[in-house]
Each structure stands twice: as structure tokens, then as C-alpha cells.
Amino acid sequence: MNTRNFFTPTRRYKTLISSMHSIYRLVNSTFELKDLISRLSRLICQIFNARYCLILILDPSKKYSILKCMVSGREKFVIDKKKKITNRIERRIIRTFAGIRNNYLLGIPLVAEDIMGLIIIKRAKAQSPFDKYDQEIMMTVAEQAMIGIKNLQLYEEQQRLVLGSIKSLVTLLDTRIPQEYTHSPHFSRLVVAIAEQMHLDEKQIESLKYASLLHDAGKIDVPLQILTKTTKLTAKEYTIIKRHPVMGAQMLRPFQMLRPVIPIIMHHHEKYNGTGYPSRLKKGQIPLGARVMAVADAFEAMVYGRPYRERMNVDEAIKEIKKKSGTQFDPKVVEGFLKIAKRHYKKYLQVSK
To answer: With 60 as the cut, is the pLDDT of residue 5 above it?
Structure first.
């Protein structure tokens, strides 16, 4: 019996199963197309013991790439600009919808109803040339990768639609409320900067970005004479104002993609010591995003000013935030805010003069 031939299929079968498992885990743990392509190219090099991998995503015309990742040895290049396809092998794969295997080069189209891109790998001449089985494994890998790529493209398209809806809601709110009662153009960047300083993950930062644009959406249901009042609110008026986080959350519930944003909007007026509204939550009961938003919201109101409140300069506002650490604000969020406040907010120095 030829022992080598007997064991080779089993060994390759294990390689295929292991490869599919690795691709599956990667596809289901990545939420950005550029990141997926980048990590996938490295993984494919490992699976096929290749020294070079190119993954290319096409635009609808098939004449340009819109995303391109190349791994060569220890170097990696990601190009997310539109580039004309000029390489002969790339053009051949695109034209024929067929793979290419030529000793030390293996190229496979990425197909989902239509060709969406391609993968090309290369080995050094000192290594074994690619064989038919390598090509079959690559085709299986490409099918699995294409599922992830397609899903992320659909997800990104949904994100663009959601962002368009958010911008429409913000525009509607801004046209109703005088500018001096709304946030400055710097507010969203402040929220994101604190989140990044605290090393929140990508999804949390994305949710905070959306929440920073829509956290006051519920005020659209508050009478304008209350919103624009320059004197102290009555108890009844304050009760109406305090309803806006709940109203904002209710407005956004139909948007499936905005579900993670709702707790931030609902609870951004809670206080760390449990004296805030609408639910009098305290400490860790308050969603982390809402605790971040609370600090940014307070700082913005102090520095940018409101008709019912005199402006503070940046140093005074920072001092006030520090003073209320542990009572109104989460100390860890305050710590993150203090690290970025001075260097990141020179723009506020001009605003507060």
C-alpha cells in the first residue's frame, strides 16, 4: 500500500476543515469591509503557505477596483481609492469569470450572481507549485469569503441609509429650534474623542456617534415656548422637558439599526449618584454610552452657552466637571475627558470668548 497517497487526502481534508473554520470565524467577527479584506489576505497566505496575496473588490463597471489589499511577505498595503484595472491577469479573471492556475500563481474570481472581485496568491519558486486540490480549496475559501464580503457591503449600505435618516431628523430638529439652543458642530467630535480615549470598541463608538446627533431628538415634541424660555422653568415646564429622552427613544425604535443607540439617548440625563432622570439609575446601572454623553453634554452647555445660562471659559468648565466627578459624572469618564480636553478643544477657547 502506498502510505503517502493513503494519508494525503486525510491530511488535506483536515486542512480544508481547519481553513473553513478560520474563515468562518473571521467573517463573523469583523464589521468593516476594509478590515475583513486586510485580515483575510493574511489568513489566506497562511492557509496556502503563500508569499503574496491580492484581494480586489470591483466597482459595478468591472473596470475599476474600489478596495484593494496586497500582502507581500511582512508588508501589507490597503488601497480604498478607485483605481483602473490594468493588470493582464486581473483583467483576464474579470473577463472570463474563471480561475487561473499557473505553477506558482493561483487566481480565483469572487462571484455572487455577478463577479464582485478576485483573489490572487503566489508562492516562491523554491516551494511546491499549486495543484488542482489547492485550486479547489481556494474556490471553497472564496465562496465563504464572498458571503462575508457581500454581507458587509449590504451592512454598509444600510448604514448609509440610516445615516441619511439621521441627518434628515437632525435637520428637522435644527430648523425648529433656534441655533443658540442647539449643540455646536464640535459636539459629536467631543463625544467620539472621549470614547476613543477610554478605548471603547468600534461598535460602541459608532453608537455614540449616532447618539450624539440624535440625543435631543425628543425635544421636537416639546413646545417651542418652553425650549426657548430664557427664565427659570416652572415645575410643570421642567416635567415636560424631562420627557424628551423617553420621547427620543420612542421615535427611534422603528429604526432597527439604531437599537444600540436608544439606551444612550434614554439615559444621558441620569446622574452617577442616582438623582437624574428619567429612571434615577446610578453608577453601573447607567449605560456606559450615556455616562460618556452626560459629560460631553454638560461641558458643551457650559462652554458654548445657552440663553438661560452664562458661558464659562474652558478652564472653568473643566474645573466644574472635575468637581462633579463621582456625583453627577462617572469618575472613569471624567478621567478620559480630562486627558483629551485641553489638547483637543482649543476650538472651544475661541467659542467661549
So the answer is: no
pLDDT in tens, 185-242: 678 889 999 999 999 998 899 899 989 988 888 887 888 888 778 788 889 998 998 9
Burial profile 306-321: b = 16 or more Cβ within 10 angstroms, e = fewer: eeeeeebebeebbeeb
- Alpha-carbon distances, residue 60 vs 38, 55, 69 (angstroms): 21, 17, 18
- As a whole number of angstroms, the distance between CA 102 and CA 231 comes to 80
Count of alpha carbons within 13 Å of 63, Cβ hemisphere only? 1
Measured between alpha carbons, how far is 244 from 182 in angstroms, rounded to an integer?
Answer: 14
To the nearest 10°, report the CA torsion of 217, 268, 308, 328. 180
Mean pLDDT of the chain: 84
Q: Which domains does the chain have, with CATH numbers?
A: 3-152 (3.30.450.40), 166-351 (1.10.3210.10)
Greater confidence (297 vs 344) lies with 297
The residue ranking higher by pLDDT, 23 or 283, is 283
What distance in Å separates the CA atoms of residue 345 and residue 302, rounded to the nearest whole number?
A: 13
pTM for this predicted structure: 0.61
List strand residue ranges (DSSP E) for the chain, in order.
Answer: 52-58, 64-72, 75-79, 83-84, 100-102, 105-112, 114-122
Q: Quick check: helix, strand or coil at residue 257? A: helix
Identity of the residue numbered 345: Y
